[in-house]
Amino acid sequence: MFDRRLLKDFDKTLLVITFIICVGGLFVLHSATQVKSLPFVESYVFRQISWIALAAVMLLLITNISYQKFIDVSYALYAVNVILLVLVLILGRERLGAQRWFAIGDFTFQPSEFIKISFILVLASILGSKRVNLEYAKGFMLPFISLAIPFVLVLVQPDLGTALLLIPIFFAMMYVGGARIKHLVILILSGLAAMPFFWHFLRDYQKQRLLVFLNPNVDPLGAGYTIIQSKIAVGSGGLIGKGWLAGTQNQLNFLPERHTDFIFSVIGEEWGLFGALILILLFFLIVRRSLDIAGSTNDMYGKLVAVGIVTLLTLQVVINIAMTIGFMPVVGIPLPLVSYGGSSMLTSFIAIALLLNIGMRRSRF
Hints:
Layout: H1 12-33, H2 44-63, H3 67-72, H4 74-91, E1 93-95, E2 98-104, E3 107-109, H5 111-128, H6 141-155, H7 160-176, H8 181-199, H9 204-214, H10 225-236, H11 248-251, H12 263-296, H13 300-324, H14 342-361
Antiparallel strand pairs: 1-2, 2-3
């Protein structure tokens, strides 16, 4: 039974901002996909609305259950997610050279999206229980294994962007969990030293993306095409944009993947700098509210989960926007709550739900 006393600490502002971004995202998604002229019930907008409705139901369910219960079953959730990551490599559907999705009819499911949450939960369980002594290097073994398993499984799909996202989440949570800075610095330097070695394990198109980041004109009609068109779209929007449904790069189909990873390019073109800054401000408010929740809870488990989630959301927003304007390589990170995709939408709402959950119960631990 839901304890109504918890409602006094329910962060309504965080929830309202989340839905404002979702609704705004639907208008952008319509603009990005309306040239396909699909019936409404088959359109991307209708599907996205369906995902938002399902995600809202999940949010209600998750906020009704103490986040401590999710910590208690974190190992089971993590294990199931890891098994799904293995199975998708065997049974998953291949698209654009990557094998990341299970497909059942028109429904697709991407396990790598949900590993972000299950990894945060299991790492919070490890660090919060004080099962490991982070004063010594050997205490890093179990947390590092919990990172390495999903990192490798996601990397071989290949999904370089999601795999790399797990690393800063790991470091942020380890720092809050009590790890010494010198140990974290040693790990970071070791990773940087190993980068030339990992270069040989990247797919050819991933290497090309990194090279194109340095100079898009190396392959202007291939790997560099999308980023060139994206920068043209964002730059042509000016201060106030060309207007909804009036973006030429968007409407004339010059911009690939504009309903998913490059949806910010549509915002920049049609709503201009003004619209882009409003969206960034809304995301900033989410991050600010999330940091307030993390800072005000005395429970280490809740603090660790909140820190992991705010790191995840912040990085996804920063990386997605940066790659659409050419400040970072294209790594296939969706814009939370805006990009089309059921798995991404559900993951974002689960993250917000856990933050709300922690905020409601922070005074009880």
